[in-house]
Amino acid sequence: MSIEAKFKKLGTDNAPGQEVRQSAAGLEALMRGAPLEGRPVDFSHGDVDAHEPTPGAFDLFSAGVMSGGVQAYTEYRGDLGIRDLLAPRLAAFTGAPVDARDGLIITPGTQGALFLAVAATVARGDKVAIVQPDYFANRKLVEFFEGEMVPVQLDYVSADETRAGLDLTGLEDAFKAGARVFLFSNPNNPAGVVYSAEEIGQIAALAARYGATVIADQLYSRLRYAGASYTHLRAEAAVDAENVVTIMGPSKTESLSGYRLGVAFGSRAIIARMEKLQAIVSLRAAGYSQAVLRGWFDEAPGWMEDRIARHQAIRDELLRVLRGCEGVFARTPQAGSYLFPRLPKLAVTPAEFVKILRLQAGVVVTPGTEFSPHTADSVRLNFSQDHEAAVAAAQRIVALVERYRA
Amino acid sequence: MSIEAKFKKLGTDNAPGQEVRQSAAGLEALMRGAPLEGRPVDFSHGDVDAHEPTPGAFDLFSAGVMSGGVQAYTEYRGDLGIRDLLAPRLAAFTGAPVDARDGLIITPGTQGALFLAVAATVARGDKVAIVQPDYFANRKLVEFFEGEMVPVQLDYVSADETRAGLDLTGLEDAFKAGARVFLFSNPNNPAGVVYSAEEIGQIAALAARYGATVIADQLYSRLRYAGASYTHLRAEAAVDAENVVTIMGPSKTESLSGYRLGVAFGSRAIIARMEKLQAIVSLRAAGYSQAVLRGWFDEAPGWMEDRIARHQAIRDELLRVLRGCEGVFARTPQAGSYLFPRLPKLAVTPAEFVKILRLQAGVVVTPGTEFSPHTADSVRLNFSQDHEAAVAAAQRIVALVERYRA
């Protein structure tokens, strides 16, 4: 594949944060009515001013800077002292052992962990099972390494509330067709649904049967709403621990994205490869930033409960606003801060509507096509926003749905 | 290529900072005499405690944190306000225009810039001209993307002091053989030599003649010693600006490695590809860290001169110590903080001697084989260290050379 062809597939025009590089040419002719007033809301990512970084994070960073060279130049997989702190916390959270020395790597964000994990498991031509819809980078990573994506559907729309809706037959078919890597996010990005204990059990059993490696992106697994139960794949009896890599990070729930931190843990062989690659990708997660992880999973009592309660309140009010619009379907997110409403048929294309939302309502959302070719009629909202501003923005979305209804 | 084969080539056992993961098994039998006392010195990278980060860097970081979400979530290519500040400074330094909007990307370290630049220019099977010796990651990057390395020799040993010693005929042969990318560091890592105006002019002319893209790693180009003149390839009249990417960063001279910052600038088309890839590699250089770049190329008057003078003093004393040992050859570095002495024939292998240096003398150096298959008899020292400790460590190196002399 030529370098031009390879990069042509890597479009980022609709990626969160990149809207500033979009052109609005040709939209004027389609627009109806006047702009809607209101505080702009960028639902493409969380608002860390509304939900601030974990208290103490900056002090830990400062202490890292003060400690000087030892914190600036860590092993590529991250400072051992910090890995020693994190491993038991991650083990307690996920219910299975974590080897601080050989089974854990600190990365530049969870994106860094995902990149390294896919690079360390997918060679050219390898088949990789990918959920539709799921985080858009999953597909792009597989394509970048010239793997072949085998889609597995997640029917979060029809599934009852007790399960995410994974097509388990589809997953087995993917394995039967030769896929030896399965990559998925739990809670699902964009739908916010959590895989049930039964679904995780089945994934574990299928992975074991076919000898597949599973990369579980659990970035949002700490922010769980009332009534949600969560099952960690890596703690399943059926799994071979060497065939699972779990990815997490403090960028979302903890609002620490500005420090670019993530972790991957599990399989020693895969972590070892990931570190070898990290050495030529970016050497290490920023040394001083790594120090911030000392406070991760060690937040003050009540801090997480409060953060969850605030997000649950925003979620519930957004759901009321969106469901008040005829033809909108929105499943209740069980964890994380993504809402993925399906919109009714409009007189403009979904891509046009997303741009119109930005230009006429000051509302940035991520188009559904980023997550699956089958979800063009949906948009993703990261509702980790100022409560009032988010509700007002959702009302503007509804107003424009009415205005552009087909 | 299988994933195992691909990663087997990516060895990092001798990479700087990774010595903690080495085994010393089997060395005991080879060792002669008692350990040498002295403060341990890790010459594999600079000592940012001895040469501290640029004053004000931490304050800029703090201000970045205070500014919140806008600094945490920048464009993938980095904050535009910061790019607007940097572009004219980089243009003034290199003598050619820099397009802040489309021709500049902020990356996680210069390593991040190198990775993205190679990924954006080298497809499977592409031939890439690589200097021997040069920064070890260059070769590994080409191999990772399954390019084919075409070595071009740098005869820094025999060349007179007015030139680095590049085999220009060899470079043209590489282009004739089909290489369309040339990747090199200037000043050269590990030899510390600077390419002459004539060499840079010839590289520019050859690149233009063969339509080749040049990636110039100028990481150390600010730390120049008395008498060194420096020519920026990107400012050469012969070059097509769209075929050159220049890489720099504040990790070395400015001791800001703990923030993980680098930049690449030049070709708009290549920078655009690099950003697309950054979106799936690590999203962006840590947002808060980017703020530190506001102070880059804006240091207090005299700060750089002082930093250069201190390094020149260390360089000169290390050269005296090393040249006092019979059979050691060490060319005078013209810029940067790398010394690459060639050692006389020893009774142990070069790899063993490097381990012995660590175990018996508390001195970490990088083996010459990391930079070229032809420089196994050399070791690289990053002499950005505490002056006295570095001199004492060099004396221990000399003492062990005597002890193990063949």
TrEMBL record, chains A, B:
<keyword id="KW-0808">Transferase</keyword>
<comment type="similarity">
    <text>Belongs to the class-I pyridoxal-phosphate-dependent aminotransferase family.</text>
</comment>
<protein>
    <recommendedName>
        <fullName>aspartate transaminase</fullName>
        <ecNumber>2.6.1.1</ecNumber>
    </recommendedName>
</protein>
<dbReference type="InterPro" id="IPR015424">
    <property type="entry name" value="PyrdxlP-dep_Trfase"/>
</dbReference>
<dbReference type="InterPro" id="IPR015422">
    <property type="entry name" value="PyrdxlP-dep_Trfase_small"/>
</dbReference>
<dbReference type="GO" id="GO:0008483">
    <property type="term" value="F:transaminase activity"/>
</dbReference>
<keyword id="KW-0663">Pyridoxal phosphate</keyword>
<dbReference type="Pfam" id="PF00155">
    <property type="entry name" value="Aminotran_1_2"/>
</dbReference>
<keyword id="KW-0032">Aminotransferase</keyword>
<dbReference type="InterPro" id="IPR004839">
    <property type="entry name" value="Aminotransferase_I/II_large"/>
</dbReference>
<dbReference type="InterPro" id="IPR050596">
    <property type="entry name" value="AspAT/PAT-like"/>
</dbReference>
<dbReference type="InterPro" id="IPR015421">
    <property type="entry name" value="PyrdxlP-dep_Trfase_major"/>
</dbReference>
<feature type="domain" description="Aminotransferase class I/classII large">
    <location>
        <begin position="67"/>
        <end position="396"/>
    </location>
</feature>
